[in-house]
Amino acid sequence: MTTPLTTPEDYLALLREATGLDLDEASVHRDFDALAGWDSLHLLKLVSSLERATGRRVPVGQVLQARTLDEIRAIATAA
């Protein structure tokens, strides 16, 4: 079953569930280096959660070039 990520709140809820981090709306636009507790394991968990939520593969090569969580959302939801 897929869950559309149509609102910022949908994405923020997925982020919190996937990473276990206390992220807020501003966190989505911050560089990864500025996110307290962020590491590569969180990135893997996020990609996996996005693939389940959207029902599509998320291109990891593009994700690795992203600098913010919002850029990852755009990659995952691109048509």
Could you characterize what this model shows?
- The protein has 79 residues and is mainly α.
- It has one domain: ACP-like (Non-ribosomal Peptide Synthetase Peptidyl Carrier Protein, Chain A, Orthogonal Bundle), CATH 1.10.1200.10.
- The protein is 53% helix and 0% strand.
- It is built from 4 helices and no strands.
- The chain has helices spanning 8-19, 40-54, 60-65, 69-77.
- Helix 1 packs across helix 2 (40-54).
- The longest helix is centred in the middle third of the chain and has 15 residues, at 40-54.
- It is globular, with a radius of gyration of 11 Å.
- The model has no long low-confidence stretch (mean pLDDT 92).
Note the topology.
Blueprint lengths: L7 H12 L20 H15 L5 H6 L3 H9 L2
Q: Helical segment tally? A: 4
| Shape by Cα distribution | globular
CATH superfamily: ACP-like
From the 3D structure, determine the CATH topology. Answer: Non-ribosomal Peptide Synthetase Peptidyl Carrier Protein, Chain A
> What is the distance, rounded to the nearest whole angstrom, between the alpha carbons of the first and last residues?
18 Å
Percentage of residues assigned to helices:
40-55%
* Gyration radius over CA: 11 Å
Strand content bin: under 5%
Spans with pLDDT under 50 lasting ≥5 residues?
none
What is the structural class?
mainly alpha
Question: What pattern of helices and strands is seen along the backbone?
Answer: HHHH
What is the top-level CATH class?
Mainly Alpha
Main pleated-sheet profile: none
InterPro entries: ACP-like_sf (IPR036736), PP-bd_ACP (IPR009081)
Pfam families: PP-binding
Protein name: Acyl carrier protein
Organism: Streptacidiphilus jiangxiensis
